[in-house]
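During data preparation, a discrete fold description was generated, as reproduced here:
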Amino acid sequence: MTLFQIASLLMTLAALFGYINHRWLKQEPSVGLLVISLASSLALMAMSAVWPQLDIRGQTRLFMGDIDFNRALMHGMLAFLLFAGALHVDIEYFVKRKATIATLATVGLLISTAIVGGLSWLVFRMLQLDVSFLACLVFGSLISPTDPIAGNPNSLMSTMVAADFEQSFTADFSNIGGPETAIATGTSANKLTRVGIGLEYGQMTQGDTDVSNLTVPLSYSIRNDLDPRRQLLLRMPISIVDVDGAKAYHLGFGASYRFPMSQYWTLAPSINYAFTAATDLGSTAQMAATGLTSTYYWRKPGYDVGIGNMLSFATTLPFSYGGYDYDPHISNTVLRNGVMWSRPTLVSGRKMYFETSLIDTRFFGSKLYADNYQELRFSLGTARSAKATSVFRAGLALRHMKSDNGFNVEFGYWL
């Protein structure tokens, strides 16, 4: 394709994605374009996994190989990106907050660079990857920014607990027979590390309030080379919650480790930290949680059945900034229990797994708007065997809380 054709295609897609965001998602333009682009990429990955004869990966590599990204970015896109960013700067707001902005852009950037760079260097050393400390600091500086809490399924506490349960039970029970097979056949061909990215969109009505959420769950798992059932699971979910037009932003970090207690039973202790900020709602908080998830499954001819039981304790932490101190003093013990049924099926001649699960979540402690809710989930995806080079899954979750109902659409891809 010529440069003119590539530019025309990109402008057409940007206009189409912009219309979809304006008509249905109603997010900030940059956020909407990012989310739709990610969804399109995941859809192409799914098509490639389901219909390999289309050779989507080969066609994509051929198309992308014709683009000089260094020249396209540095001599083409960068000028427009900088101009667009400067064009939307609120000068009056900038001047009023000049002290805060200057502090965050200098001292805050240096602190964030040191923390992220140092932790990255330690993680790379643990993984025995030869990455220099200077390169980790550069990475830390690149990702460092210069720039409602509990009581419903889209709240900070609920999303943090759900992400923990998802990775410890829902995601890892699915086709869990794979790791045991890998033990018997040796680990030389097993994939010991896996990076995951996903996209989730959900809506729920709470009384007269409409709540929607967009989540990008990022994950990284490391299998033990002697027993692939042993896994270190790291996650970082990023969410945007819309409450009748008011935006709230969630960022979480979590880690858990799966211990096989027997051939069919595993335990996964976990720790989590999350932060939320909602300028429109005037709410800011941070939260920590620790939990333990048990997974037990039965293998039957033609299908598997598993149960997951999670006990977690979550509490808000004091937050201070610029003389502002706030702690909502919310502490809850959370019980999340579920049962899942998994069955292999054929889709266009390719072996896939159809799964159905029913999950109940209950909160005990601080009084919340809703102290329990239920989910009925359906998903379809490829096998999660330790030998699989990639894994894809798409699903739908139906939620019920008091007299309110909602849904969540989920896509995930692991490499």
